[in-house]
Amino acid sequence: MTGCQERKTFRHTWKKGCNPMTESILRLPVKTISKLISELSALQDRLRSGELLEIPSVTLLLKSGQSLSGVVVRALQPGLPENEATLLLQSRDNSMDMTYVPIAAIGGVTVHYTAQSMLLLSDGKIRASYGRVPSRLELERQARAISAQFAGIDLVILWDELPRFDAAFQSIELLLNDFQAILLTICGDDIGMRALREKVTGVSIGVDTTANVCLKENILEIRLRVEEQDLIYQPKGKLQEAIEKLL
Could you give the count of Cα atoms lying within 13 Å of 232 in the half-sphere of its Cβ? Predict the structure, then answer.
């Protein structure tokens, strides 16, 4: 977006006794093994293109009863019959050992829990929910630290707009982490740093009907969207792309 529309004030409540993590798991879509492996392989392509990603590790449950654990490096399956499709698996201990596994031999896949795995399994709709929930004070300190790191940029969290449930605070923490990493990338050279300082004097984080980013009167507005019990923002790669287009 290149401009901002008028914002409405959003207020939300959270039902006590509900477990956000359980609700998120129940909303995950069903995927075939072939589709899941293709998506895991695609993450590696995004990593090689320069996007900062956390690649989930997996355990392949083979039909023979054996299991293999590691990270999917590449799936060689487009255009091939299922019985000829193969994937390349790197060992979980970060060694250079590689295993070639026929996809037809796989009976199940366990995707080990990370922030990226929840995004992957939900097609980008569900952020990870961790046991630890940051406090408002911690998030304010994190925002102030980012402001101090990038002098001249005042980062404000619009607390009145945010829903009061644990997943919202966790999402804000994840967003702040991603945003800090994005700014470090943009300011990696003089051109990016100059563009940021010339066009952005402040950043506000709030809620809108859609997850979006826009620039209004030198304020970079980052908006999250409430979807059932989750607070959703644009994946890091898309968020960085949107911010760079505004500079």
Answer: 20
